[in-house]
Write a structure and sequence with these properties.
The chain is α/β, with parallel strands linked by helices. It has two domains: 241 residues, Metallo-beta-lactamase, Chain A; 143 residues, Flavodoxin domain (Rossmann fold). The chain is elongated. The protein binds MU-OXO-diiron. The site of MU-OXO-diiron has 9 residues, from α2.
């Protein structure tokens, strides 16, 4: 139970949100946590706050350690409401005019989020603040994942407070990676695939910068999920690998939906052809799978195969939803292919192909259209289409 002392005089005073199931479109089937950290030194610092509605729990956690009025200063690493929603209330409890340290963009965001006249203290990238025996170093991490985002590093303990980066949407009493075990990487992968993938180039630059600065970490403390203490380098290496998008698996994800089962039959036959070629394959019907779980499967796959029946001269609404979502996350180095059944007009495959081409997928052409219900002969064409995609995956290119 929080609070948890994570190092000598440093506590996680955050809260667990056991029941959240949708985090603005991301399925949080394991809930999440909003971590916040209290550092006891000659000056007492609170790093980040929690989502509105959880303020009483957080203040009770702090009160188990110290009188909250003794907090001298607050650091806001990130202004998204899950970490800032309770800041006005926290400031009111500890003394409204105590300093609130944040980046320049952070002060702009917070002053627009909240009408209160708070005592913003803008920090510079690389700026330091002494707490007494310890000091805080601020590292701006713009667009990871908001313009205001920054990290706070305690060099004396080699602890990085990394805001959203390296997080996982996971609710549990396991405070650390070694207690949760290997499943932490599954949660971290889903989080990366759905929140950070589009910032991959910036992540690679940040990892380079941290390497050049010679920083090493005993612990990385994100604002969601468990803290990395067993091997913090493991999650940094995973972020580097996911961001490069070159170490992909011989795997295809078939993302589709269906009206009267014809496109579904096509999907399974295409999967069979891919399997014939030794490709790992995941058929995922969009009305059964959440878009964020599909994106997680796509992260390390070499190919994405999309299928839709033609509906009202267009594509099925779930495919339109998913393609919009995937486009925003900007996956790279993928082979693409499109298929679908139709009754009379048959536009869906052309539309799907166009969407994937716009995302710079290397397309297996032509896509596959089948009229009405596929019989044995048409299903054989689907299997052959799957084999063709499988061969493209092995050769590394569609053409
Ligand atoms: Fe966990 Fe970007 O907020």
């Amino acid at each position: 139970m929080k609070p948890v002392e994570i190092a000598d005089g440093i506590y996680d005073v955050g809260v667990i949100d056991w029941n959240i199931r949708d985090f603005h479109g991301y399925s949080t089937h394991m809930g999440t946590s909003y971590n916040a950290f209290l550092i006891l030194d000659e000056k007492i610092a609170l790093i980040d706050a929690v989502k509105k509605g959880f303020e009483d729990q957080m203040m009770r956690n702090i009160a188990k350690i110290i009188d909250p009025a003794k907090i001298d200063l607050v650091v806001s690493n990130h202004t998204e409401m899950d970490h800032s929603g309770t800041l006005p209330l926290v400031m009111e409890k500890i003394g409204a005019q105590k300093p609130l340290y944040c980046s320049k963009m952070g002060s702009r965001n917070l002053s627009r989020h909240f009408p209160q006249d708070l005592n913003y203290q803008v920090v510079e990238d690389g700026g330091e603040l002494s707490l007494g025996k310890r000091s805080l170093t601020f590292l701006e991490t713009r667009m990871l994942h908001w313009p205001d985002s920054m990290f706070t590093f305690v060099k004396e303990d080699k602890i990085l407070f990394s805001s959203d980066a390296f997080g996982q949407h996971y609710a549990g009493h396991e405070e650390f990676d070694d207690i949760l075990g290997d499943s932490v990487m599954d949660h971290a992968k889903k989080y990366y695939a759905n929140i950070l993938l589009l910032y991959a180039p910036l992540i690679l630059k940040l990892i380079d910068r941290v390497t050049q600065m010679g920083l090493s970490f005993n612990m990385i403390c994100p604002d969601h999920g468990v803290l990395w203490r067993k091997d913090p380098g493991r999650i940094i290496d995973a972020y580097a690998r996911w961001s490069k998008q070159t170490d992909l698996h011989n795997k295809a994800v078939i993302v589709y939906d269906t009206m009267w089962d014809s496109t579904h039959k096509m999907a399974l036959a295409i999967a069979s052809g891919l399997h014939d070629e030794g490709i790992e394959v995941r058929p995922m019907k969009l009305r059964e799978w959440d878009r964020s779980d599909v994106m997680t499967e796509i992260l390390e796959a070499k190919a994405v195969v999309v299928g839709s029946p033609t509906l009202n001269n267009g594509i099925f609404p779930t495919l339109a939803d998913f393609l919009t979502y995937m486009k925003g996350l900007r996956p790279e180095n993928k082979i693409g292919a499109a298929f679908g059944s139709f009754g009379w007009s048959g536009e869906s495959v052309k539309i799907l192909s166009g969407e994937l081409e716009a995302m710079k997928f290397d397309m297996v052409e032509p896509g596959l259209k089948i009229q009405y219900v596929p019989e044995a002969e048409q299903l054989e064409k689907c299997i052959e289409f799957g084999r063709t995609i499988g061969k493209a995956i092995h050769s590394g290119k569609a053409g």
